[in-house]
């Protein structure tokens, strides 16, 4: 059976230096305040839901009866992505250099499909991705990383029966640790140490959750080009 490479999209296929996470944080904050919450309460709940549920949106659905598709249009859908990111030829080459007889390449994102597809299109990578695992905002109680269910669904959709054949890179340490705990074989934490990004509406220094490789077999990389080395067996 061939292997499957799963790539997180946001803050993995583009750098945190793009500032998208800050813009996303602002849009989500505005969404909270549009529900009638005060600034402080909005910030606190935004962070709480992100931490507890992996996505602020899930808390909004559970406790505020928010329509996820409306949320997606007003948050991810309203981001000026075209102004913030652009294709990187070296990243395109990286994906082209994967030996497709050995591994297929999938996106694995907590975003909804329109945002994921838009990012891949802007980055000029859409034709190099074999399939997309996304959060289906239309489904009640949809799963997201780091729920084990999300990873199980990913294997099913990508038709992978042996998790040891999975490759996965994500900028969120919690997400890669969750994959490792489920036996995913080759897992990398993309960690742009020194940069900042916004998570759950709060500015966070990247690398503050950096752990040593040895702990659970997760490799820490600061540049996606390092995948050529740590995953050499799936490159041409
Ligand atoms: Mg990410």
SSE pattern, N- to C-terminal: EHHHHHHEHEHEHEEEEH
Bound molecules: magnesium ion
Q: Output the number of helix runs.
A: 10
Which secondary-structure class do the elements indicate? alpha/beta
Shape summary: globular
Report Rg: 17 Å
Low-confidence stretches: none
Main beta-sheet annotation: 6 strands, parallel
Tell me the β content: 5-15%
Question: What is the strand tally?
Answer: 8
Please state how the strands of the largest beta sheet are arranged side by side.
3-2-1-4-5-8
Distance between the amino and carboxyl termini: 18 Å
Q: Helix proportion of residues, in percent? A: 25-40%
Mean pLDDT: 94
What does this structure look like?
The chain is of the alpha/beta class and 236 residues long. The longest helix has 15 residues, at 20-34. Strand 4 (166-170), helix 9 and strand 5 (186-190) form a beta-alpha-beta unit. The strands form 2 sheets. A 6-stranded parallel β-sheet has the order 3-2-1-4-5-8, with helices on one face. Strands 6-7 form a two-stranded antiparallel ribbon. The chain is globular. It has helices at 20-34, 39-53, 56-64, 68-74, 81-84, 89-96, 113-122, 148-157, 173-181, 227-230; strands at 3-7, 103-108, 131-133, 166-170, 186-190, 196-199, 202-205, 219-221. The chain has 10 helices and 8 strands. Helix 1 crosses helix 2 and helix 2 packs across helix 3 (56-64). It is 39% helix and 15% strand. The structure holds magnesium ion. Residues 8, 10-12, 170-172 line the site of magnesium ion.
